[in-house]
Amino acid sequence: MQKLSIKDIISKISNEETFEAVSSDYSFTIKIDKYVPYACAAIHDGHQFRKELWDNCIHTEYERWYEEDPETKNMVKSHPIVIAGCDSRFEYDLNRAPKDAVFDTAWGKQLWHEPISEKMKDKSLKKHTNFYKMVHTLIAVLESKFGFCTVYDMHSYNWKRWDRDVPTWNLGTLNIDNKRFGDAIEGWRQSLFEIKFPNAIKSTSKINDTFQGNGYFLKYITNNFKNTLVLATEIAKVYCNEQDYIIYPEVLYAIETQLNKRLPEHAMQTYHSFK
Questions:
Q1: Residue 77 class from Cβ within 10 Å (0-12 exposed, 13-18 middle, 19+ buried)?
Q2: Per-residue pLDDT reduced to its tens digit, 208-248
Q3: Is there a contact between 130 and 23 (Cβ–Cβ < 8 Å)?
Q4: CB 258 within 8 A of CB 250
Q5: Rounded to 5 degrees, what angle do the CA atoms 136, 142, 146 make?
Q6: Which Pfam family would be a valid example here (predicted)?
Q7: Superfamily of domain covering 2-274
């Protein structure tokens, strides 16, 4: 893996080079082993939190981890194109518009002892801007090269905080064209439903049950590119104990190995339907 400036990353994508890199500010990673009509994203995978913000942050390290999407990059690491955030959403949230990306409060609790300065905000928002410069270039190249592409926008959620039965997998489709992409959406939902978990974990999958797909990442791509389908895919945190801060490697392995087969099958079927 190389460390590259945003300018060099954009240049390599524009020239359709294969590479693996971390941005020079260590805010995101990108891997392109091969140019294919689909990409995987784990924008909330990151847990880094700038040290200069530590003393001013009210939330604990565990509270930050609890609201992040740990291990979502590892679920899709084997695919040809993978982008992932390195920084915690508590510094800036890649799934929110720039004006809302730096929190004042987070999940009902004040985030900072003292309001952070505009200089601190700008430092974070520059990383947000660079990430979307990379995303825009990548999707533009994939659409131009293939005519159509699918982005699997991977997230996770804390299922134990709900006071009702919730699905293992949830697809948020409120902000995409359900009439045009209905078959692709249902095909992905069905494929996720068929995933087998160890430890007697059941697999259920629903559309717009716990979340509706209101994230900025999905909206940005959908609003800027007419032939890219973004599938906001949420897994309940059955792969960890969200209350005791324990990851279950055997569950992660089951997810990653089955997505390794199911995700490209769905992506290529969708591609051939819309190219």
A1: middle
A2: 999 999 999 999 999 999 999 999 999 999 999 999 999 99
A3: yes
A4: no
A5: 150
A6: FGase
A7: Zn-dependent exopeptidases (3.40.630.40)
Whose structure tokens read 């945190």?
Answer: 237
Would you give the DSSP letter of residue 109?
E
Q: Is 274 helix (H, G, I), strand (E, B) or coil?
A: helix
pLDDT recorded at residue 106: 85
193: its two tokens: 């439903």
Query: Cβ distance 173 to 218 under 8 Å?
Result: no
Per-residue tokens: 255: 């997810």
Our CA dihedral for 214, 182, 154, 218, rounded to 10 degrees, sits at -40
Using alpha carbons, list the distances in angstroms from residue 45 to 83, 145, 182.
10, 28, 28
Could you give the CA distance from residue 266 to residue 275 in angstroms, rounded to a whole number? 14
> Residues with Cβ < 8 Å from 77, sequence gap 6 or more?
256
Nearest to 93 by CA among 124, 57, 123: 124
Rounded to whole angstroms, the Cα distance separating 154 from 230 reads 10
Tokens (6 digits) for 201 = 């974990």
Can you tell me the distance from the alpha carbon of 151 to that of 39, in angstroms, rounded to the nearest whole number?
Answer: 5
List helix spans (H) across the chain: 6-14, 61-67, 72-75, 118-146, 178-193, 216-224, 249-274
Report the distance separating Cα 223 and Cα 97, nearest Å. Answer: 13
| Cα 245 from chain centre | 21
Q: Over 80: is that where the pLDDT of 133 sits? A: yes
Q: Is 67 exposed, middle or buried (0-12, 13-18, 19+ CB in 10 A)?
A: middle
C-alpha to C-alpha distance for 74 and 93, rounded to whole angstroms: 20
pLDDT value, residue 178 = 97
